[in-house]
Amino acid sequence: MEEAYNVEVEFSDNQLLLRWFIEPGYYLYKEKFKFKVDGQTHTATLEKGKVKYDEYFEKDLEVFYNTTVATLDTQSLPRQLSLKVTSQGCADAGLCYPPYHQYFDIDLDEKLAQETGKPSTTGGSSQNISGNIDSNTVDTTSLSDGSATNLWISLLFAVIGGAILNLMPCVFPVLSIKAISLSNAHLSPHQQHLHGWAYTLGCIATFVAIAAVMLALRAGGEAIGWGFQLQSPMVITLLMYLFFVMGLSFSGVINIGSRWMGLGQEASQGDGLRHSVMTGALASVVASPCTAPMMGSALGYAITQPTFIALLVFAALGFGMALPFLLLSYLPKLANAMPKPGAWMDTLKQALAFPLYLTSVWLLWVLINQTNSNQVALVATGLVAIAFAIWLLPKLPEKGTGLWIGRLTALGAISLALNFAVNAKPEKADELWVAYTPKTLQELREEGRAVLVNLTATWCITCLANEKVALSTDTVRNAMKANNVQGVKGDWTNADPQITELLNQYGRSGVPMYLYFPPKKNAKAELLPQLLTPEIITDAIQRHKNNNLADISNI
């Protein structure tokens, strides 16, 4: 954790400043900061953080990105003191750390600060905390060093966490159907063992491959952690497509399970081992969005260790993932206890499709938070294109021109879906535009800034067309930058009385509405047409700029 969150101690008049430097992609929780001076809780002043809905705590929390400062008033403090600081952070990729404790010996007279280890309960100022040990004094981050004990603990945590991954909604359908198919495939004990180890190989190889890419990127300077692949909208989209197709397969709409996941009787054929390896790889891929209990500590330890140790921990994670299936292949009594084949298997497989559909919905929610509604609409269109291709292929004639036309049409639909996935990009903050509030607009006007107001809604086709052909073009954006024009966007997708009031002020009852305020404090707004072109906007900017220069020349 200390690699992602570096802290420096600074001194000011009657103040002690603790300044954190946070690596990109990581953040610290404001409410998790705690400060103790000689064992007694001390209040510090913290900056205002960014409000973020946190899945770990399931509520809105203030967090700090990049940097933050905590200020302690030292007027009432002893001149030599021991300071304990507690903080807790997470990575955007989903890896969260336990509370982290740091200890400092501070000399306010000499303005010296030295970070120390956990103090003893005897000697010096640490005597003041003797007998006041509570749960907060237990350092839960001791796995950060590379001792043999911590290595074995981390490996154990990785194996247990990997085993728990099998209970995740996205993994359980694959494992359960594979386990049932193996127990009913009339294999010899030796063949069952081979399939168990083939599945294990697929799991371990996949986890190690993902980890190797992550470590290579970290070595290249990227501040990423486990789950980094889920920061890519393209990967999220492809996974959503995969879960959707798997769900259709489990529902019986298409019959690809025996080829892709080694289901049914193919496990007993000569090439069944290959399918068991593929099943392990697939199960590991679909488990990548999930983080199980105990995984966090093990992965946090892994990314701070040399490459070989790190890959060893990830291999243990893959082994834990494969462990239930591997045990099944070695326990014939357990395998024989599995229900015998019958119509119920098809019903079970269809029922297990619904966790896969729900996983697709969850990934769609992740994509909404990563991109925007336009991108989500394209990805949803991609799902429809995939469904169309799946519907079309079984209806094609066995030969002739119609067969090839149908195949090319299906291929085109799938290519369209893949194109939407490849072009999915994270939505970046656009400094040219800020959200509309009456206060924001008033402050910009009092500064004498030129302002372009865009009142829009996602269900307004004209609004979306104007943004595409005019507002988002390089011509308009360059003109706004060159003339210091601030864009203000009011989203009327949901009812907003403040936007309604602004519409009424200019005699409008609906969107779109575009206003251009010239760079004068008291200048009146120009109401622009409802159908925009780049020239309409740039002409308005230039016209009012020239008028302003003419006014200045007449002074």
From TrEMBL:
Location(s), subcellular: Membrane
GO function term, MF aspect, one: protein-disulfide reductase activity
TM region positions: 151-175, 196-215, 235-256, 277-303, 309-331, 351-368, 374-393, 405-422
SUPFAM superfamilies the UniProt entry points to: Thiol:disulfide interchange protein DsbD, N-terminal domain (DsbD-alpha) (SSF74863), Thioredoxin-like (SSF52833)
One Pfam family, short name: Thioredoxin_7
Gene Ontology cellular-component annotations: membrane
Span of domain Cytochrome C biogenesis protein transmembrane: 152-364
Keywords: Cytochrome c-type biogenesis, Membrane, Transmembrane, Transmembrane helix
Domain Thiol:disulfide interchange protein DsbD N-terminal: start-end pairs: 2-106
Topology of this chain in the membrane: Multi-pass membrane protein
InterPro entries (alphabetical): Cyt_c_assmbl_TM_dom, DsbD_gamma, DsbDN, DsbDN_sf, Thioredoxin-like_sf
Superkingdom assignment: Bacteria
Keyword Transmembrane: yes
Organism listed in the record: Marinibactrum halimedae
Protein name: Cytochrome C biogenesis protein
The UniProt record lists the keyword Iron: no
BP GO annotations: cell redox homeostasis; cytochrome complex assembly
